[in-house]
Amino acid sequence: MQKQYAVIGLGRFGSSIASTLFEAGNEVLGIDINEERVEQFKDCVTHAVIADSTEEEALKAVGIRDFDTVIVAIGNDIQASILTVLVLKELGIRQVIAKALSKRHGQVLYKVGADWVVFPERDMGERIAHHLMSPNVLDFIELAKDYSIEEVKVPSSMTGKSLKELDLRAKFNLSVIAINSRGNIHISPPPDQMIEEDDVLVVIGRNEDLQRFANLQ
Ligand code: ATP
Ligand code: ATP
Ligand code: CA
Fold this sequence. Notes:
The protein has 2 domains: 4-118, Rossmann fold (3-Layer(aba) Sandwich), CATH 3.40.50.720; 123-214, Alpha-Beta Plaits. The protein contains 9 helices and 11 strands. The chain has 217 residues and is an alpha/beta fold.
């Protein structure tokens, strides 16, 4: 389903979000104060425009109010990042996602109304550290301090068995909520579902149990 997104700030982070959304078939408006950046990325988005996002009139002029979701990918200029989020929320943008460089910056972004603050350097660092510790873990979502959902490559010792035989609930206190079997997604797999080589299990549970499971060979 095609959606509309605006991305403000076409640095490395913003341009990566914008081009990924565009390549997936979405309509993407890219905005940057810097003419060279706009020129550089004009073919990676639907429209690219030069504007100073801290100026309400400039944002109105590029039609920002038509967008439901706006990503603020300005980092180094903290003042510009905060002002931009403030203006966007004042204009009534429903979902504003903003990049923060530090914890303090993030707190201020939430205070001025950001709906979701991301810390790309910190978050990517965490992900890589987790991956180094358990290479079978492809991705994870932290649900609470001690609980996560993880995508785990199935250990070879488990292939050719059914979920019932593996009995992950009893042995690891984990629930398999989906299986990605060579691109076919099985949601809420039944107990007789067979686990095949290269399957990826989406598993929910306590972090320590997930880690025990992901370290199996
Ligand atoms: P990244 O780490 O994502 O590569 P960066 O370090 O190159 O980003 P940032 O200072 O985070 O640079 O800015 C990202 C982009 O935001 C830059 O292209 C910059 O021109 C743009 N930008 C900064 N201020 C504004 C503003 N007021 N309005 C619009 N764009 C802006
Ligand atoms: P980040 O985007 O992760 O916050 P940064 O933009 O603050 O990083 P970088 O220039 O990427 O800074 O450098 C990261 C760290 O690497 C800094 O602490 C810097 O002091 C250190 N560093 C840079 N060059 C060298 C070097 N030649 N030897 C050792 N450390 C270095
Ligand atoms: Ca940067």
